[in-house]
Amino acid sequence: MCGIVGLFLKNPGLHPELGFHLAAMLGVMSDRGPDSAGFAVYGSSQADHVKLTLRAASAVEIREAVAALGKAGAGDLDSVFHDTHAVVSVPLAREQEVRLLIARDSRVTLVGVGARMELFKEVGLPEQVAKRFELSGMSGTHGIGHTRMATESAVTTRGAHPFSTGKDQCLVHNGSLSNHCGVRRFLSREGLTFETDNDSEVAAGFLTWRMQQGASLEQALTDSLADLDGFFTFVVGTESGFAVLRDPISCKPAVMAETDDYVAFGSEYRALAVLPNAGKARVFEPEPARVYAWELR
Amino acid sequence: MRSVDLEESSVRELNGELHRLTPETNETRWVIEHPQGKHAIACGLDAPVTVEVKGHVGYYCAGMNKHATIVIHGNAGVGVAENMVSGEVRVKGDASQAAGATGVGGLLVIEGNASARCGISMKGIDIVVKGSIGPMSAFMAQAGTLVVFGDAGEALGDSIYEARLFVRGSVASLGADCIEKPLSDEDKVILREVLERAGLSAGSDGGPDGFRLYGSARKLYHFHVDNVDAY
Q1: ipTM of the complex model
Q2: Who has the most CB within 10 Å: A155, A197, B13, B208?
Q3: Could you tell me the residue ranges of all domains in chain A?
């Protein structure tokens, strides 16, 4: 089944509350996807720096691994730890060097990279996953989240959403794609690499590929309608963008709420009911095969 | 009047109370506060009571309704009034997918828009939508009336049997075996009667003449002798 949520804040006054609201939305969607959960938050950025989100098997191991990276030559890393994950801020000039060190350490996995994006995912009840990562204390402009009921691949952290295949780009997906193997082969020839056999990662990769070629997020999603086959509702984040797309027969549920303060997406209205002034929001169901996109001003 | 706050009671408790009502009950008016998009609110009612829901509801609200009148002051999630037998369900806002699915009787009025698959497999229910309806509506519709003041999405009435589909706006496309039909006097009487039950005067909201009728070409569900070789 799966549940997906997204929140894009138009009112900067709400930025400190982004994580609080996203956590509440994820919690409500627990019964659509109790296996695992994940979320991405677009927070602050530092000039000429990139944020690397790293994951290890335990909270102890991630600390050991980041310390080891420092000793191995990465130096004193500016790190923030959240349970099994660490967000490490690295000067852009040293990004490749640090990523090489990360690739050599079998204990750590690079979950996401971006100027603003931080990405967390774990197996477990979504409400608890959000607590472990202290989501409710995070601030930012927009975020997306996912609660997973696995159908296509195993219940592992690797298989949890969001999937990130490009800097500051990530996607959550409700549904299943039927031509992901073919699209993955095509994208691999185009130079993209995939961490999993998951169909949703292919959708993320497709959008990354189109955006690498110069397409806007909106255009990339429009193109996906021609090339991705199957059931999907996608919610996608980029450094400054937030977008929603449903397949042409709107197989998977979706509802949105918009006020002067925010645009919110939920698999069900229940997930939106927890937001401030939800009762006064314009609530609408996104039409099939129509791209809805918002950009930060 | 009975008032139930779903921030204090569960949907199960509410539905349990509603199910225990007898046809002679004096508790004929119920108000539900804070539905918050919860599922299966006021499902399976069979007493002649009126239930007003003050807000947006989740999936399958007013499903399997019999005799009751249920008014939703907000939007409805997937499958509102699905499998309704009799009574009336009115949605003041928009309805999600599969509104009125498989209904065998009663009246469903949606004052906003309905999304995909409105009236799918309808079997006698009357559905009136003041706005527009989404794609694949009235798929395999068997009996009943679907009246749409706005537009209809792609593949209206695909594989339809004998339901009548009245649309005043545009139709994006017709599904397999669904065709436009001339509006007979009998059809106009049926349309006017449904509109009156929905509380929409034929004059102000457009009389029967403003509507086009769509129905079955009857080529899919009748055996055609050209297919005899298949047996």
Answers
A1: 0.84
A2: B208
A3: 3-44+124-295, 47-115
